[in-house]
Every structure is written in structure tokens, then in C-alpha cells.
Amino acid sequence: MTVSILSASTCADSTGDQQSQEDFNYVADQFADIQILRYQVPGFEYLSLQQKRLLYHLSEAGLMGRDILFDQNGRYNLAIRRTLEAIYLNYTGDKNSPDYKAFETYLKRVWFSNGIHHHYGEDKFIPGFSEEFFTTAVRSLDTGLLPVKEGSSADQLLDELIPVIFDPAVMPKRTVQSGDQDMIVASANNYYGEGVTQEEVENFYNAMKDPADTTPVSYGLNSRLVKENGQLTEKVWKVGGLYSDAIEQIVAELQKAAGYAENDLQKQVIETLIDYYRTGNLKTFDDYSVLWVQDTASEVDFVNGFIETYGDPLGLKASWESTVNFINKEATKRTKIISDNAQWFEDHSPVDDRFKKKEVKGVTAKLITVTSIGGDCYPATPIGINLPNADWIRRDHGSKSVTIENITEAYDKASQGSGFNEEFVWSDKERNMIREYGFVTDNLHTDLHECLGHGSGQLLPGTDPDALKAYSSTLEEARADLFGLYYMADPKLTELNLVPSPDAYQAEYYKFMMNGLMTQLVRIEYGNDVEEAHMRNRQLIARWAYEHGKDDNVVDFRQRDGKTFVVINDYEKLRSLFGTLLAEVQRIKSEGDLAAGKELVEKYAVKVDPVLHREVLDRYAKLNLSPYRGFVNPVMKEVKNKKGEVTDIIFDYTEGYTEQMLRYSRDYSFLPSYN
Ligand code: ZN
Fold first, then answer.
1. CA 244 to centroid of ligand 1, rounded, Å
2. Ligand 1 centroid vs 473 CA: distance in angstroms?
3. Closest Cα partner for 175 from 191, 195, 194, 161?
4. What is the CA(535)–ligand 1 centre distance, in A?
5. How far is CA 310 from the centre of its chain?
6. Does position 13 have pLDDT exceeding 50, yes or no?
7. Cα-based angle 64, 67, 71 (whole degrees, multiple of 5)
């Protein structure tokens, strides 16, 4: 499973100031509803040459399959991308015309979505240029530059592509997930052949399943199901099968990578993956996944394959993706310190002793640095990954869970120039605090929430774990957040060397209160209530603390120039309020007190002040922030000596979005236009 975030949420959650802390240029491009960022790869220089070369070849392997995803997302996507690129590279008309500008934006969107449908909303883009512009541009090109089928002409290509690009009724949605229609027939993606119905797919795969099998393979994961002569048959994605030209290149790079493996187990992981790509055998894929889970000692790690099934309405077929990374030892040390002290935190928490765990086990989250993202992780990028997906492997062998620290850092840094904090934070004092400590305390709060918060506390004997019903996720998130907030300010964190200053926690407190009381409303449409559990939890905590601190004026709303701001007057009292609420939420959970839990949520977490909501939305709209963000990769380069031996691998961070996309289309494109 991948954890994604919309950048709108990062804008609200992340913090910082107008000034950039470094010279690094985080923003690479902006178009439509998208902002393209760059990420850095800190710590790479400390790796051994062997590890660097391993990362290099895994990263190359991660780029080789780019065409696969385009074709999976729609059968005309490669032909469309190549036609658009041919126009882009050879156009001789007016490049300042509105048609051309709209064409450029459309091409950037197709690159971003790996196809003609929105990467998140699933709807087909409506081109801002005319059919006439497109026709003229295509006809002006030498046919040899166009992806025409053998013996076919530019006009035949136009006949085929024009309805797909311009007619809103043709292939309107990439993946249809609900409704009464046949979801397989209605989805525009290319996981099933023409004429295959949902019922046929269900029958086909149900017939394969054996209810007695406790370790079933992921049926259908790596193939397109098509009808040939009236018979359903799987076209398997493997060497010698469908997408072979790209998969052979992936395998070639994986073979090179295997030569630089850190240890025997990792070598076995890579070789088993190669074996799977060669045979298409799903049993081998499971063998690979088990080995991959067991490899926790290697510093370098990667995902490469047909992994996530979000694109298939039936959740069977997986899109191709890649991430390549190495462990961030410093950051992982942080979560280990927290985990190692789990019992101390449990023993000293403000909750009633009856609700405390006698023996608590902290969880260590691994924090990683990516060197390359590809396929369905590019350019829109997850911030966390938890794999494998097969239930039985998770049950019998566990899973690996990671947070991609250099991606979250890039989100944070890029937000610093967004104007968001200039607009919503009360004064320079808070802004400076957030700029100095915000990233550290944000991560620390997440660590405390994940490694300790959720695992803390116990139910009283006889309490039904499902007693809190629909309110359970909000209350559970609140419990974990409060645990983190309470300990953010504890001297223990200074003692453990986890905070740069005893006051650093104030940055997190301010951000949390501003977000929960006000700025997270930018994600809610005017007139709606707060629905999502994490958002409800944040409003619950912020509103409750605001109300209960009123007599002491702990937190207040102030007006300036007709705008509302959150001001915190007493950070220490705010901490004790968090402690009080933590004790109460833990009591509710431990006793299964549904009535009290319901009242807390309904009273503080759901309703929105319409006047404040309107104001926040209007102020946010003026900032012109992009709701979606993605990344370009840094360019990895081999440094060679006079004898031609590789002596180092270095990064170049200067490549732009368009440059990168054109280069990938030139150097990492192996599939025919129609597959
Ligand atoms: Zn949580």
C-alpha cells in the first residue's frame, strides 16, 4: 500500500517562511493544477561505491518500464504521447498562440498522469487547443516522425486519435469504481481486452481460487485478460510475453545491480525478481516478496514490479512502479531512541494507571531516502510505503513500512515559499519558530504518534474493542496525536537529544492549533462538515483545548486588517490541557464509553463556523497554490576515470520537467505504440 498526500494538505500541514533556507531550487515547474518539485538526496556521499553502483542500476531499472504504465493506463496513451512529442519537437508555427500554449499544458499533463486522464480525479482532460490546430500540426510533420501503424498514414492516425483526445464521451474515465454500470467495460484503462465484461472477469478468477489454500497467489496480478476467438486468455507481462521489450531492459539492469548486492540475501531478492520477470510465475513473485520482507539488514532497498492494484476496479491487475532508496540512518536512529524508551513514556503519561500497558512494545519506523522514482510512483509520489500487499505474506512474514524522508522534506521546503505562513501565521515570532524548528518537530510528532501513540494504553478487561463504533477512528487518531503533543514538550525529549531546544515544541503547538482551528478548512468545500477522521481529530483537539483554556486565555482568535489569526498565549497551560484530554480519550477507549466519545466528536470535531470558513477559503484562493504536486528525479551520473572504470556516482539537480520527460521518452522508451 502506498500513502499519498495531496499537496493541498501539505500546504496546510507544512510550515515555514517566505525565505528559503538554502539555495536549492525546489520548484521545477507549474502548470494546470500541478506543481513540480525537486527532491535532494542527502547522505548519498557517505555510501560505499558498491552501494552507489547498486542504487544506480536499480534506478536505471526503475526507469526502463515507464512505457508500461502509459499503456496500462489506456491503449492509445503511447501513440498520443509520441504524437504530441513529435509536434513539440518539430513545430514551426507560432509558439505564442493560445492554441500552442494550451497544447504545451496538455502535453505536460499527459506526462504527469502517464496518460490522458487525471492522475487523481480519473477524468479525461479536455484539451484547451482546437481540433484544427492538432490536425494541422500533425499533417505538417513528416510521417516518419509519427507513431503510425505499418502501411498507415497520418490521416488514419488522426482518425483514430481525434475522438480519443477530443470527444468527451469516448473513454471518459480511466478507472470507474462505483455505479451500476459494468465497471470493466466503463473503465478506459487497458487491463482488460475489448469486449471483456465484469462478470466474465469475476467468473474467470473465481474459478482459479481454492478456498482451502491459505497461501494463495495474487491471481491476475501480472496480465491483461483478453478474449481471443471467444475464449478468455491471459496475456502475461513477462519476458517473451506482453511488454517484453521493456521488461527485458528492466531485467538487464537488475542483473547488473545483482553484481553489487550488499549481501547474499539481497542478491537472492534481486535474482528471484529476475526469475519472476522471466517466467511470469506468480508463485515466484510471492517467493520474491517473502525474501524481500526478510531482508531488513541491507541499507539499500527497492521496489520494482507490478505492485498496486488501485487502477483496476476489481483490484486484481497491478500497475508497474519503482522506488529505489537507502536507509536514513540518522532519522531512523531517532525512531529507535523513541521505541527503546517506550516503557518510560507509557509509565509517565497522564492517563489513569489502570489504562496503562504494563509491558509496551514500541515500533521502529524505517525512514528512507529515495534516489529514484518511476512508473506509478512518478511524478506523483507517495510519502510512505507498506508492502507487500498479499494478506498471507503479511500474516506469516510481516511487512516493511517506510516513510520517505527526503520527499516529505521537499514538500516542507517548497511550502516555505508559498506565502501560506505569511498569510495565516500571526507574527514573525511564530513564523521564525516554525522556520527554525517546524520540520524537526513535525517529524518528531509523527514519530511519537506512530511509534508510541497508537500502541499505548490498554482496554479494561471485558471492554469490546469495537465499542466506539463510527467514532473509533477519530478518537484513535486523537489519542495518538495527543500522546505525541503531550510528550513534544517533555524535558525527556531534551534529555534524549531529540529536540534542538526545550522550546522547539512551541512550533508544533502553534501549527497544530492554527491548522485544527482554522487552516485545515481549506480542504473542505464551503457548506460541508468535517468528515475525514484525521481532520476531525485535529479539530476535536484544537477546539476542545481552545474552549477549555478560555478562562485562562490560553489560546485566542485575534483580528488584524479584517483577518482572523490564532494566537497562543500560554504554551505550558496548553500542554496540560493536552494531557487532560489525553487522559479522557484514553478513559473513553479503555472503558468503551461510546456516549462520552460521541459527545466529544459531535461537539468539537464536526461542525464548521461558516463565517470563518468563508474567510479562510477566500484568503487561501488568493495564494494560487497548486492542489497537486509531483517530482522530477535528480539525474544520476557515473563518473569514470581514464581507464573507463566507474569511480563514483553523482547527482545533477538542474534538469527541468520538460527536459526530463523528453529525455525519458528518448532514452527509456522501448514499447511499440500499440500493445
Ligand atoms: Zn494515526
1. 41
2. 9
3. 191
4. 11
5. 13
6. no
7. 150
What separation in Å is there between the alpha carbon of 14 and the centre of ligand 1? 17
Q: How far is the CA of 167 from the centre of ligand 1 (A)?
A: 43
Q: Are 361 and 455 in contact (CB under 8 A)?
A: yes
Strand partners, 300: 326
Q: State residue 231's pLDDT score.
A: 96
Q: Could you tell me the pTM of the whole model?
A: 0.84
**CB count, 10 Å around CB of 476?**
17
Helices H / strands E in the chain, number of each: 26, 15
Q: What is the mean pLDDT of residues 391-410?
A: 86
**Sign (positive/negative) of CA torsion 90, 94, 99, 103?**
positive
Q: Which pLDDT score, from 0 to 100, does residue 580 have? A: 98
Q: Which cell goes with 351? A: 492517563
Q: How many residues are listed for the chain in this entry?
A: 675
Please state, in angstroms and rounded to a whole number, the distance separating the CA atoms of residues 307 and 317: 9
State the greatest distance between any 2 C-alpha atoms of the chain, in Å, as a whole number. 82
Which residue shows C-alpha cell 506523483? 380
Instruction: Convert 272-298 to b/e letters by CB count within 10 Å (16 or more is b).
Output: bbbebbbbbebebbbbbbbbbbebeeb
Counting Cβ atoms within 10 Å, is residue 172 exposed (0-12), middle (13-18) or buried (19+)? middle
Query: What is the C-alpha to C-alpha distance for residues 295 and 261, in angstroms, rounded to an integer?
Result: 12
Kind plus residue range of the DSSP H or E element containing 646: strand 646-652
CB atoms < 10 A from the CB of 372, how many?
Answer: 24
248: CA distance to ligand 1 center in Å?
41
Residue 400 pLDDT level (bands cut at 50, 70, 90): confident
Distance (Å, rounded) from C-alpha 123 to C-alpha 119? 8
* Among candidate residues 366, 316, 540, 338, the one with its CA nearest the CA of residue 455: 338
My answer on whether omega of the bond before 379 falls inside 30° of 0, hence cis, is yes
